[in-house]
């Protein structure tokens, strides 16, 4: 009999958002939409990581929570945590890999993502792969917008997508201001 895989989980709270985080020994595998009940995580894991046992553990999830806290506080613009994405199709993994290369505070279109993976006609498939992204924020699908510059679908809702883009824009502005202040201070 195959040994059960352990999936650790915890709640991550930012402002009014309470998100479920889950990871295996290989890395973070899931970030839930704000205020989702635990059964949403259980259903996702049952579908994607068969033969598992779910254990709540803030300690095991600390590294992931810390990096998310740093992101929301504006001190982290990219993530260095291990990710577990082996459950995904090769196409989804390719799309998600491109998403991880979108710079903090920048946006790209679905059309641009399709071109980057050399599948310019696969815009709908790209959109579907982006919609299936299990790692909100860390794989920054919120940075993908419509060709006309408008916000398009987001698993956690357009309100959260807009808020994440605003958070990144405000932290980027603060970083630029600090750079200017430092440069002025260095020239004195």
UniProtKB/TrEMBL annotation:
Gene3D superfamilies: Methylated DNA-protein cysteine methyltransferase domain (3.30.160.70), Winged helix-like DNA-binding domain superfamily/Winged helix DNA-binding domain (1.10.10.10). It is an enzyme of class 2 (transferase). Residues 90-169 form the Methylated-DNA-[protein]-cysteine S-methyltransferase DNA binding domain. It comes from the Bacteria. GO terms for biological process: methylation. It catalyses: a 4-O-methyl-thymidine in DNA + L-cysteinyl-[protein] = a thymidine in DNA + S-methyl-L-cysteinyl-[protein]; a 6-O-methyl-2'-deoxyguanosine in DNA + L-cysteinyl-[protein] = S-methyl-L-cysteinyl-[protein] + a 2'-deoxyguanosine in DNA. Its EC number is 2.1.1.63. One of its GO terms (molecular function) is methylated-DNA-[protein]-cysteine S-methyltransferase activity. Residues 8-83 form the Methylguanine DNA methyltransferase ribonuclease-like domain. Keywords: DNA damage, DNA repair, Methyltransferase, Transferase. This is Methylated-DNA-[protein]-cysteine S-methyltransferase. The lineage of its organism: Bacteria, Bacillati, Bacillota, Bacilli, Bacillales.
């Amino acid at each position: 009999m195959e040994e059960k895989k352990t999936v650790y989980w915890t709640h991550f709270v930012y402002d009014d958002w309470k998100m479920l985080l889950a990871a295996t020994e290989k890395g973070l595998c899931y970030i839930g939409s704000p205020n989702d009940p635990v059964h949403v995580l259980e259903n996702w894991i049952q579908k994607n990581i068969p033969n598992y046992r779910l254990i709540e553990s803030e300690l095991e999830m600390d590294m992931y929570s810390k990096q998310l806290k740093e992101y929301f506080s504006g001190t982290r613009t990219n993530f260095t945590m291990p990710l577990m994405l082996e459950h995904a199709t090769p196409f989804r993994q390719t799309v998600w890999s491109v998403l991880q290369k979108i710079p903090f505070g920048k946006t790209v279109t679905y059309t641009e993502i399709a071109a980057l993976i050399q599948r310019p006609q696969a815009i709908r498939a790209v959109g579907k792969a982006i919609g299936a992204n299990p790692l909100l924020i860390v794989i920054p699908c919120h940075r993908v917008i419509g060709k006309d510059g408008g916000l398009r679908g987001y698993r956690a809702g357009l309100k959260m997508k807009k808020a994440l883009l605003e958070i990144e824009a405000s932290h980027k502005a603060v970083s630029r201001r600090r750079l200017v202040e430092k440069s002025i201070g260095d020239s004195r």
